[in-house]
Design goal:
- This protein has two domains: about 5-95, 2-Layer Sandwich (Uridine Diphospho-n-acetylenolpyruvylglucosamine Reductase, domain 2), CATH 3.30.43.10; about 100-215, Uridine Diphospho-n-acetylenolpyruvylglucosamine Reductase, domain 3 (2-Layer Sandwich), CATH 3.30.465.10.
- The radius of gyration is 19 Å and the shape is globular.
- A hairpin with a 7-residue loop joins strand 8 and strand 9 (about 185-190).
- By secondary structure, the protein is an alpha+beta fold.
- The chain has helices at about 5-10, 20-25, 35-40, 55-70, 120-130, 145-150, 160, 230, and strands at about 15, 50, 70-75, 90-95, 100-105, 110, 130-135, 170-175, 185-190, 205-215.
- Strands 5, 6, 7, 8, 9 and 10 form a six-stranded antiparallel beta sheet that branches. The chain has a four-stranded mixed beta sheet with strand order 1-2-4-3, sandwiched between helices.
């Protein structure tokens, strides 16, 4: 019996995708923007994808993969540009996109699952309290909040609030460890930087708490120039 067959038995009712075409689609991000990475990573694919819906799904998957010695690559919505969500060692992609519940919107506080899309968060916080996240990436409509924390660094709002790693820009993060008995660890303060920008290597994000601020009336402007000198003049 293959490792993936054994994993399927251990996971029970947790969704496990093994269709080759579907697995390949979930094994990719926007790495192909770079001709160098496209050549180096185009062959990369997992053997299966686990579609986690709950924190318990994540814990059970990590425990089973640890026991079976199956590599795990966490994935949000796959909007990164550098292969961060690609399973270089094969194994399993642990997709958290279905863990997208927004459980609390309050004065200055958002709590949600890692799979919540930042565009959906903005819609919900604006409707509820006229608040927004301090910053967001250019891919906010399709990027997940867990992926932004695990792989992002800043974005629109960073001029005012600094980079994402700076104190206060992430209130807390809960992560699951990959070991025989995975632990759930709540990180605050500078400890958050143990998982921020670590791409899931040090723990899989299962819940995030972010600060909210009064919403701005943003105006998006696209400027084009004939050449670089005209741009910087």
């Amino acid at each position: 019996m293959s490792q993936i067959d054994q994993l399927s038995l251990r996971l029970g009712g947790i969704s496990l995708i093994t269709n080759e075409k579907a697995v390949r689609a979930k094994s990719r991000d926007f790495f192909w923007y770079s001709p160098v990475l496209k050549g180096a990573l185009d062959h990369v694919t997992a053997q299966a994808v686990v579609m986690a819906q709950t924190e318990d799904d994540v814990v059970r998957t990590l425990a089973a993969c640890f026991e079976l010695d199956i590599p795990v690559t966490p994935r949000g919505s796959g909007t990164g540009n550098y292969g961060q969500a690609m399973p270089i060692a094969g194994g399993v992609v642990l997709d958290t996109s279905l863990m997208n519940a927004i459980t609390r919107i309050d004065d200055g506080v958002l709590i949600c699952g890692p799979g919540a899309l930042m565009g959906d968060i903005e819609t919900a916080t604006l409707a509820a309290t006229r608040q927004e996240l301090r910053m967001h990436p250019s891919t906010r409509e399709t990027a997940s909040i867990g992926g932004f924390i695990a792989g992002g660094s800043g974005g629109v709002g960073s001029v005012r609030w600094g980079m994402l790693h700076e104190p206060g820009n992430i209130r807390s993060v809960r992560v699951a460890t990959m070991e025989a008995r995975p632990r759930l660890i709540d990180l605050t303060g500078l400890d958050i930087n143990n998982v921020h920008h670590a791409y899931g290597v040090t723990g899989v994000i299962t819940e995030v708490e972010m600060p909210l601020v009064k919403a701005e009336d943003w105006v998006e402007i696209l400027l084009t120039f004939d050449d670089w000198q005209a741009c910087v003049a």
